[in-house]
Design goal:
The complex is a heterodimer of chains A (346) and B (122).
Chain A: H1 8-21, E1 29-32, E2 40-46, E3 49-55, H2 67-79, E4 87-91, E5 101-105, H3 113-118, H4 123-141, H5 158-173, H6 178-189, E6 199-201, E7 210-213, E8 216-220, E9 227-229, H7 232-238, H8 258-267, H9 275-301, H10 308-312, H11 318-327, H12 329-335
Antiparallel strand pairs in A: 1-2, 2-3, 3-5, 4-5, 6-9, 7-8
Helix pairs in contact in A: 4-8, 5-6, 5-9, 6-9, 6-11, 7-9, 9-11
Chain B: H1 7-25, H2 31-50, H3 53-64, H4 73-86, H5 93-111
Helix pairs in contact in B: 1-2, 3-4, 3-5
Amino acid sequence: MTQLPEDQLSAGVRALIAEAAGSDPGSVALTTIPGGASRETFLAESEGARWVLRRDPVGAQDSFAPLETEFRVVQAAAAAGVPVATGIAFEPAGGRLESAGFVMGHVEGTSVAPRVLRRDELQAARAALPAQLGEALARIHSIDAREIDGVAVSDADPALAACALWEATIDEIGEPLPGVEAGLRWLRLNPPPPPGRECLVHGDFRLGNLIVNETGLAAVIDWELCHSGDPAEDIGWLCVRSWRFGNDDLPVAGVGTLDELLAAYEAAGGDPPSTERVRWWEAMGNVKWAVICARQAHDHLTGARPSAELASLGRRISEPEWDLLELLPAASAASRPRQPGPEGTV
Amino acid sequence: MQDRPTAPELLDAMAADLYSEVREWVPRERRFRVLVLANLCAVIARELRAGEEPSREDLELFNALSDSPVEDAREAAGDLAAAIRRGDLDERLPEAIAGLREHVARKLEVARPGYAVSAGDA
């Protein structure tokens, strides 16, 4: 973490908090919180109080949901009963935060997945998480994305749109990934029927984007990839093996079973998707993670973002690629002579 | 011929040093980077020890699924990926997927030994 000097940005944060809270918090110290994919996050501390500032990098091209949309989505999620870090104030680009940004309440806990899965003091949290995650997802999915100004909405079938998105991304990268292509082809030929209803999808729902404390789920954060889509997308993504961090026998984020998650999802008013539909989106989640690994390695190779850490992801493509092919009925069909299921079996 | 240690042996030594002592010198919040570098050394050591054989097996597999065999594994992988995308292999997709699982398992032998088992979906 890097401590920034008292400057224009911290003065801007102080003014925003004073305006929203109705009283001056005093001098505010900012510390960068590492880990954001595309947006900057800072811990803002005054005497006795903490907030979090989320801001677009100055001068960055925004390819995700605009920050103002993210602010609105977090408010809608709070209203729907999702635990979130409450938004306090939004400031558009060119204002007191230079780029667009918002200040939210600070939530104690960790979003480092291996800590959530291993630390002794989080044992009770792990037991509570499967049901809490199911409930939080049901509440997120109760939100109609079309009612929130700025959320990406498309008329295309979400499953086929996902196929097209990742095919296009592979083409942009330009590296051959025949294993991913074979999986993607199977997914394209065997899409689930269109979902009964589209809803707000978080887009990156996994332990790394959740704050967990001793009692379990404290807040769902990082809403920048939210969009309108099939609710099963979030559930499948949460089950991707890479997010289990070694707890392979517990498909839901390394903490629980799909049955536990879906029971809580239904109890909280969600309409639980079929296992086949979740499996399709889990396989698609592996496509997505494999392609993201390839793209990050490519960003190193082109010199866009030189980094040994990004370069190393080129040797991790094979993990989700393997899981993708493992999830396809066609793979077992070939080894245990059985024909792949007809269209519409998922 | 270089003197020993061989390249993989040197990488083993680098990985061991990074995993143990160097990691301790680095502030806790930056240790992940050291682990990434140590892991890369271990990956490259395995890649060097595996030699050309995995790429030869991949080339053979890709050519077997293709209409026009080529001599370079990366080129063959590109041709196969494009053929799959076009739908040329739709009739043989289960065969292609079964073969490509072996290709991915070969990559994992280098990148992450022990990973290529069934995920154990509960």
